[in-house]
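Batch manifest line 432
LIGAND: fe (iii) ion
JOB: complex structure
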Amino acid sequence: MGAGETDSELIPWLRDARERSLSLIADLDDDQLLGPRLAIVNPLRWEIGHVGWFQERWVLCHAAAQPPLREDGDALYDSSTVPHDTRWDLPLPSRTETLEYLAEIARRVCARIERGVLTDEDRYFVRLAVFHEDMHGEAFLCARQTLGYRSPWWAERSAPTGEAGPLPGDVAIPGGLFLLGAEAGERFVFDNEKWAHKVPVRPFRIARAAVTQGEFAAFVDDGGYRRRALWSDAGWAWREGLGAEMPPYWRREGGEWQRRDFDRWVPLEPHRPVIHVSWYEAEAWCRFAGRRLPSEVEWEVAAAGESDGQGGLAAARRRFPWGEEPPGIARANLDSTARGCLDVAALPAGDSAFGCRQMIGNVWEWTADDFQPFPGFVVDPYQDYSAPWFGDHKVLRGGCFATRGRLLRNTWRNFYQPHRRDVWAGFRTCAS
Ligand code: FE
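JOB STATUS: finished
ARTIFACT:
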């Protein structure tokens, strides 16, 4: 790919990422923009400033050796050095000042791109800043759900209708040696995806779809949260500590289950994936159903693998479940084009070679595995992206309805601690 061709997408990406970020905070008042001190959210006025700071830090200060706009930028916004619980106490600039800071950085970055002097290293950092902003965009949306703010796009986005229904059953996947991780030649990869390495996989059976709200309700109705035998020691300790009796945004109203969708209570949508469950809840559901979570490599085989026609795995891998083309609305529920998850049987055009649906988009999927470096791991310049989190996080795959399509591919690894329930996470299971 020629330099001109790659540069032409950078400015639209930067503008689009920024437009999305701003649309996620535009309607919030000053109190909401600071919000309560919680371990799982940032004060949004801090977070929006951090997004601009990160762009400046890598694209302008690091790659282009420019001095920072604000002398106190690092002291305010460096997530590696500013402890989370102190971010509410910082002398944060006002909303207006913060937005001007962001706009000035964006102007300088775009001017640099327009001069046509970017090196490959510069391009890497521009993309890093876009993807970083994309990920914070998803976090802004999570914060709005956590805090019960209204959906930012309630009026504009269509409700995810299309009653596509359930998609029961498993597919059989052959064993073999599978190439796990990203291959050199990829335009942008995070350090945790490097590099592809062969991993042996035994034949397995995996569900065509994620576990639904209806299937999860059966577990709750059966007393699943009180049956000690269904929980691991760590899971039970987590459940007891929290007094969890159901998923976090559920309630029973007049004998019917409801779910809080931002600031509104809606009836449970039985064929949409269960969402906002911790890894421990996923694990307990599996024990209840006689199932198990897929390993990380099994997930990637189901999404990217193909049969060799002789009962084994082909050497070829797909970039996306459906093939090589970038995601579009007929194949994957991404980019907040709908205001939530679709039924699990929707979007058959996005099936993987083995017939698994919605492996990209709709809901993040917990896997069984701890987040660990691949063999030969070398940390990237942004050192705190992956390395600090190896060992005590679990891997999630696939992206959710709010994830930006430009971020994703089958090899993309997300990671959260197993107790987290605020992320847009559900799960798919394997036959035991
Ligand atoms: Fe960040």
